[in-house]
Amino acid sequence: MCGITGYIGPRNGIELAIDQLHRLEYRGYDSAGIAFPQNGGLRVIKSEGKIARLESLLEGEKTAAFTAVAHTRWATHGKPSHDNAHPHTDCTGRVAVVHNGIIENYLELRHALQERGHAFSSETDTEVIAHLIEEQLEQDLVEAVKKVLPQLRGSYAIAVLSTVDREKIVVARKDSPLIIGLGEGENFVASDIPAVMRYTRRVIVLEDGEMAVVTRDRVQVMRADGTPVQRDPMEVTWDESSAEKGGYPHFMLKEIHEEPRTLRDTLRGRISQDGLVAFSDLSLYPDELRGFRRILITACGTALHAGMVGKLFFERLLRRPVDIWFASEFRYGDPIIDESTLAIIISQSGETADTLAALRACKEHGATTLGIVNVVGSSIAREAHHVLYTYAGPEICVASTKAYITQLAVLYLLGIYLAQLEGRLSNEEARAMVHEVQSLSDRVEQVLKGEEQIIHLAKQLAPSTCFFYLGRGYDYAVSLEAALKLKEISYIHAEAYPAGEMKHGPLALVEPGVTVVAFATQPSTFEKMVSNMKEVKAREGFVLAVAPEGHEDILRHVADELIVLPPVHPTFAPVVSIVPMQLLAYYIARERGCEIDQPRNLAKSVTVE
Ligand code: AGP
């Protein structure tokens, strides 16, 4: 996520806007910039890299700017670079915009603006906003912004400066957060509360579809159509550390609760108006995609587990072999790769050494490589022939949660897209699947509402010293990820196993004190899973069943505890069934007093082999 800050008042706006940026650094970024009025125009200074580099460019700046907007960029559209850093300006230099979010229709807006003679200086979606405001900017910045907002599809939090209305910052938000800090004779704008906390604890949180006109001694909140809104400020009582986590005790819990939004962000702009998958950001052409005889998926850890769901989904839809490889094993397996192979490389960080090595090996063998990556401009994103980004935003906790969810979303869309291209799905069937994928963010929101039950379960299960996670098919793939979550943050030994395999040995380990989590989201294997639960109960193991609503009567007689999921298509159940497991791992770790965000022995990005 990008970071927006702004100041208007009697003090040095440049210093205060930059200082606020420092308080947003925890969000991760790749470039930074600032805009402020100077000599009747707007001065814009920006740089790739850290805020310190921006500050070095500002050294000796004599301007005493009383107004400024600043920005840290987490790249989504356009690589990290000076030109793509915000603020972005219009052709005349009278408007400067900083933005957090994704403008879905930016390409069509950009083309139309270029046809009307506008010259662009960046690859970003944001720059279209500056040029659109330019076109409306007679003498009133507020009116200009009001006319532009309805043209934007997607998500935005923006702060706008202009030479036309020098004593104002105009802000607006839709699906991306924006707050206004209220000072005495001065006001602040920012993406998040930590930015303003050292200056004020009185904060107005803009709601979706609202905008505001901020001067040094007044804040007018209104609907995008100008209807005034009465919004009382809130008093922030957090300390700075918890404010960075949005009030959550750990980044992990914050990032789990961000999952509905990150799902929506990852799907944004990838579903056409007629409900089919439309990857405007995929440079692989249909004929190329049809030509691949085999698909290979390689990754590490959580990303590999997402890939296992992708393998099952692709094989069922495309009826072609899909190999999956631990990237760390890849080079020892001498996998069969040639020009007819599509190699899908999944990585949140885009820097995992094993995965990067596998990518390079695939390229050496002539495969076409497609990265599914969260960090724009990362090594894997740059070295893969093609890339589809997940839009999970910065994932701070070492244990990956929201990135996994968005990797699944991209894999589902990619599978549907490939099946559409190959005529294996009618448009009607594809639309139905797309609709299911679009409903997942609501399903995840429903699961998050059941958090209290998970907290209670965690207290009950925290003393357990051995966990098995069992499933079949998609449920087995999810079991692997659920087990990893528990292991890496609670330090309890947890093992995922194909449920049908328990009787071939591991059942010998089941005894009182052993907890078995059994996933039963797949109708085709439900009865077998009930049998597995019974065989565990017969050996006095503790059974926690995870299943969609509708099976309570049976499962309450078989399992000790039951997590009921909202109704979900079995194929897409992994996105929903993993969420209570992420929460369970979190709350068990908290019960056990573990560190959680930075578990022992682990790193967020494993850049060594
Ligand atoms: C997952 O919770 C772990 N942090 C780890 O397994 C991680 O998924 C793995 O190291 C791969 O990282 P990447 O997605 O950044 O390549």
Key features?
609 residues; Rossmann fold; 24 strands; globular; binds 2-deoxy-2-amino glucitol-6-phosphate
Task: Give an overview of the whole structure.
With 609 residues, this protein is an alpha/beta fold. Helix content is 36%, strand content 22%. The protein contains 21 helices and 24 strands. The chain has an eight-stranded antiparallel sheet, with helices on one face. A hairpin with a 4-residue loop joins strand 9 and strand 10. The structure holds 2-deoxy-2-amino glucitol-6-phosphate. 2-deoxy-2-amino glucitol-6-phosphate binds next to helix 10.
In short:
The protein is built from 21 helices and 24 strands.
Computed CA radius of gyration, to the nearest angstrom? 25 Å
Number of helices: 21
What fold name goes in the CATH topology slot of the largest domain? Glutamine Phosphoribosylpyrophosphate, subunit 1, domain 1
Q: Would you identify the CATH architecture of the largest domain?
A: 4-Layer Sandwich
The CATH homologous superfamily of the largest domain is called Aminohydrolase, N-terminal nucleophile (Ntn) domain
- Mean pLDDT figure: 94
Sheet with most strands: 8 strands, antiparallel
Oligomerization category of the chains in this entry? single chain
CATH class of the largest domain, anyone?
Alpha Beta
How big a fraction of the residues is strand?
Answer: 15-25%
Any chance you could write out the topology, listing elements then pairs?
Elements: E1 3-8, H1 13-22, E2 31-38, E3 41-48, H2 51-58, E4 67-73, E5 88-89, E6 95-100, H3 106-115, H4 127-136, H5 141-148, E7 156-162, E8 169-174, E9 179-182, E10 187-190, E11 202-205, E12 210-214, E13 219-223, E14 234-235, H6 240-244, H7 251-257, H8 259-267, H9 286-290, E15 294-299, H10 301-318, E16 322-326, H11 327-333, E17 341-347, H12 353-364, E18 368-373, H13 379-383, E19 386-389, H14 402-421, H15 427-438, H16 440-448, H17 451-461, E20 466-471, H18 474-490, E21 493-498, E22 514-519, H19 526-537, E23 542-548, H20 552-558, E24 561-565, H21 573-591
Parallel strand pairs: 15-16, 15-17, 17-18, 18-19, 20-21, 20-22, 22-23, 23-24
Antiparallel strand pairs: 1-4, 1-10, 2-3, 2-4, 5-6, 6-7, 7-8, 8-12, 9-10, 9-11, 11-14, 12-13
The structure holds 2-deoxy-2-amino glucitol-6-phosphate.
The site of 2-deoxy-2-amino glucitol-6-phosphate has 15 residues, from helix 10.
